[in-house]
Amino acid sequence: MHLPWHLHLRFSKDQGIIDDQLSTTMFDALQTGFLVLGALVIVCIAVPFIVPVFIPLAIAFVYIQRRYIAASREIKRLEAVTRCGWGLV
Fold first, then answer.
1. Radius of gyration in angstroms for the set of CA atoms belonging to the chain, rounded to a whole number
2. Of 2, 37, 54, 77, which one has the greatest count of Cβ atoms within 10 A?
């Protein structure tokens, strides 16, 4: 089954926008990540007794991040099910 032509053009346009913005967004994310990493290294060199504090903070960050992502996916799934009109399945 083929999409109507106007929908095909719309999806092609959206895909083109995503392709154009992906490289810029990836560069920004890598640049920000390296800036944060550099700041952490400088802090660890300047104030070495802070290093033990970073380890539990990093573990807590990963734990909270995973919980948030899982909850966000579940909320999006529930919104999609509710929006489609089928009710909760």
1. 21
2. 54
Check: CB of residue 50 under 8 Å from CB of residue 43: yes
Rounded Cα gap, residues 87 and 83, in angstroms: 8
Comparison of pLDDT for 9 and 61, the residue scoring more = 61
**8: pLDDT confidence band, cut at 50, 70 and 90?**
low
Q: What span, in angstroms and rounded, lies between the C-alpha atoms of 64 and 58?
A: 10
Instruction: Retrieve residue 47's tokens.
Output: 């104030």
**Minimal CA–CA distance to 62: which of 50, 74, 70?**
70
Beta carbons within 10 angstroms of residue 22's beta carbon: 10
Distances (CA, A) of 29 to 49, 57, 59, 64: 29, 21, 21, 20
